[in-house]
Each structure stands twice: as C-alpha cells, then as structure tokens.
C-alpha cells in the first residue's frame, strides 16, 4: 500500500533545503545533549555517593523511559499537533537538565530527583525520535528520502561516538558543565521546532489513524515488516551481548583498560564508517541484498572475534560485524516512508524501534551469565550461531524484495 506523501519542499539539494537544515541542526544538538547525559549522570552519582548500584538505577531509569515511551510517542506524533508536541518534549528535556544542574550546584542531588530527571529526558528523547520519519516526509522530497535518511544515520552514530567522551571530559572539568551543555543543546531543538516553516499537522488519510493499535496491526499484516521487526529485535539484542563480550574477551586476554577502550573505539568507528557509506551502499544495493550481506558480515565478524589477538584487532572484528547494519537501517526506513500511510508512520516506526530494544537486556544478561559459567567463547559461539541462522533464513524467506 503506497500513500500519497505530503511534501511541500521543492526539488533542490538538501544543503539548500532550509527546513531540512533547520531540523537536522536541531536534531544534532538534541542527540549530543542526550548522549552527554548518558555519561554525565552516572558519573555524578558515582562522585556524590560512590555507589555503582545507584548509578545503575539512574542509567536504568533513562533506558526504561526510552523503551516504555517509544510506542506512546509514536501514537502521539501521529494523532496530535506536532509542533506543540516537539516544543513540549524539548521543554521537558530542558527542565530535566536544568533541575540536575540546580541540584548539583546546591549540593542536593538526591537519587530520586536524578532518576526522575533521567526518565523525563528519556521520554522527551522518545518523542523526538518518533517525529523523525513523519517530519522527514513533510520536509524532504520523495526522491531525496534515501539521502536524508543516510545523513540521519550518520548524525546518530556521530552523536553516539562524540557525546559520551565529551560528557566525560566536561565532567572532569566541572561537574556542572555537561548539564549546562545539555541544556543548551535542548534549546537548539526548541528553536528548530519554532522556526520550521513546513506544516506539522498530523496527516489525514484513509488509514485507521484513531485506533491505538493500528500501527502494530499494520506491521502484523505485512510479511516484510513482520520479518524485519523480528530480525532487528534479534540482531540488536545480539549486538548488546556482543558488545559486552568484546570487553570480557579483551580483559581475559590480558588487555589493559586503555586497550579495552581502544577496542571499543575501533568498534564504534566501524558503525560510523558504515553510516557514512550508507548513501553509496543503498544507491547500489537493494534492501534484500543489503540484508543478506549484513547478516553474513555479522557471522564473519563474530567468528573473527574468537581468534586470539590484541584488543584493537578484536575491536576491528567487531567493527566489521557492525559495518553494514546502518545501511540496512536506512533501507528499512526508506521502505517505511515510501510505502506506509503517512498517518501511521510514527506508530509503525516506533513499533519497530520498541521491538529492536526489547531483547537487549536478555542478551546482555545471558551473555554475561554464560561467560561466567563456561567462559566468553561459549556465548560468542552461541551468538555466532544465531547470526548464521538469520543469514540462512534470509535466503530461504527472501524477506525484503520490495526494499530499495
């Protein structure tokens, strides 16, 4: 089913599309602010209380809010006026960062306040994430969707690479600095939402837009979407376990803390390079071809991690496993914006995101428990076997012939 995409922007390069540049700049600022807090908040708790368990509670509150808020956020951006919604989400994030800043400055950074602030910021983040695809359909012409989505993927991976180290550096300089920087970044998204010229009202098409579970039903009725949602859930969960095993493997092989950090940096660089190559890859390969290639790269990368080597080499194997997954993400999102009803875009995209986050806790805990019981190679081989099954399933089912 192909919907008429409402797009008011003329055909011109993205660099000359004012609304796209405004939205992209605001999204970059907001992403960096969120990534700053992922490191700065736990560090603040550790410095004020010395408790790793409390730091985990704060980080867990943010993660749980992002997970629990995904589906409701998708429904809100499909049904409610989007400009006030974006402004409200930015205001909530700004208030969260400001409350932490004030609490830290006054010496009253209580655990309950920090958990509430982390959860509030996570909910605001969910709304901005849910609005990405619906707004892109309004701002960018259909022929440029793939290019815009590739740049969005690069933006996200760059923020995830830059934000946490920057948060650590600012915390070392001043405990208040990362929260001040985060607050300023959320102001950037507020300004972007205010100055966008494109109409942001929800779409009105023939889709059952008022049904709460309409997005989930649409996914369940589509064989391609059903398959991809399961694929993302399993692969993202396995990635979470693989990231933990990267640290465990390097530690067990005698690597220093600095070498383990280098391995993680090399792995993250693989995702960044993959995001930068998205536009080139998606222009030359179909979604089905990318899915198959990415699945076999996962098998190869996970297998290579089992080979005894220095930490940076193990990180390079992890980077190889990650390299093609950003292109699969872009191909899938391009398929969504080109085929699903506009009034369901937020709900369908966030249904996929909720599924993608649903198993990360299980795979992380399972990989850690199995590593303690049988050593890190046992869970590594188990994850490699899962990647192998998924790679073979792609050839049997041919799940994504329509993804271009």
Task: Please give a structural write-up.
The structure is a single chain. This protein is mainly α. It is built from 16 helices and no strands. The protein has helices spanning 18-49, 52-79, 82-106, 111-139, 145-173, 177-195, 214-221, 223-252, 257-276, 278-284, 287-305, 311-322, 325-339, 345-357, 360-374, 377-397. Mean pLDDT is 81; it is low at 1-10.
What key phrases describe this protein's structure?
single chain; about 400 residues; mainly alpha
Task: Compose a concise summary of this entry.
With 404 residues, the protein is mainly α.
Tell the overall outline: globular
Number of strands: 0
Please estimate the helix content: over 70%
> End-to-end span in angstroms?
15 Å
Content of β-strand? under 5%
Count of helical segments?
16
Rounded to an integer in angstroms, the radius of gyration calculated over CA atoms is 21 Å
Low-confidence stretches: 1-10
Structural class: mainly alpha
The main pleated sheet reads as:
none
Question: SSE string, helix = H, strand = E?
Answer: HHHHHHHHHHHHHHHH
Question: Mean pLDDT across all residues, rounded?
Answer: 81
């Amino acid at each position: 089913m192909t919907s008429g995409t409402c797009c008011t922007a003329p055909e011109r390069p993205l660099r000359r599309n004012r609304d796209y540049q405004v939205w992209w700049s605001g999204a970059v600022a907001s992403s960096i602010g969120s990534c700053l807090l992922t490191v700065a908040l736990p560090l603040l708790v550790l410095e004020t209380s010395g408790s790793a368990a409390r730091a985990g509670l704060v980080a867990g509150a943010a993660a749980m809010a992002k997970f629990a808020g995904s589906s409701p956020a998708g429904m809100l951006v499909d049904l409610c006026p989007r400009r006030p919604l974006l402004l409200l989400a930015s205001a909530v994030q700004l208030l969260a960062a400001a409350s932490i800043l004030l609490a830290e400055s006054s010496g009253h950074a209580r655990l309950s306040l920090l958990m509430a602030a982390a959860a509030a910021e996570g909910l605001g983040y969910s709304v901005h994430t849910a609005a990405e695809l619906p707004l892109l359909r309004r701002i960018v012409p259909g022929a440029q969707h793939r290019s815009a989505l590739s740049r969005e993927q690069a933006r996200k991976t760059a923020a995830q690479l830059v934000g946490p180290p920057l948060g650590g550096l600012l915390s070392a300089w001043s405990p208040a600095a990362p929260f001040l920087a985060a607050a300023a970044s959320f102001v950037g998204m507020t300004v972007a939402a205010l100055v966008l010229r494109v109409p942001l009202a929800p779409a009105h098409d023939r889709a059952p837009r008022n049904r709460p579970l309409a997005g989930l039903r649409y996914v369940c009725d589509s064989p391609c979407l059903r398959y991809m949602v399961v694929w993302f859930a399993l692969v993202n969960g396995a990635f979470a376990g693989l990231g933990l095993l990267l640290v465990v493997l390097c530690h067990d092989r005698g690597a220093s803390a600095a070498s383990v950090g280098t391995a993680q940096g090399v792995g993250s660089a693989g995702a960044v390079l993959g995001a930068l190559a998205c536009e080139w890859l998606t222009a030359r390969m179909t979604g089905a071809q990318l899915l198959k290639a990415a699945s076999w790269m996962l098998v190869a990368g996970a297998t290579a991690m089992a080979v005894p080597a220095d930490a940076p080499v193990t990180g390079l194997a992890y980077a190889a496993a990650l390299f093609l997954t950003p292109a699969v993400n872009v191909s899938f999102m391009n398929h969504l914006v080109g085929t699903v009803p506009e009034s369901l875009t937020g709900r369908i995209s966030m249904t996929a995101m909720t599924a993608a986050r649903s198993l990360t806790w299980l795979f992380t805990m399972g990989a850690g428990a199995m590593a303690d019981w049988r050593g890190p190679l046992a869970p590594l081989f188990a994850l490699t076997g899962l990647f192998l099954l998924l790679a073979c399933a792609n050839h049997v089912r041919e799940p994504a012939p329509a993804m271009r």
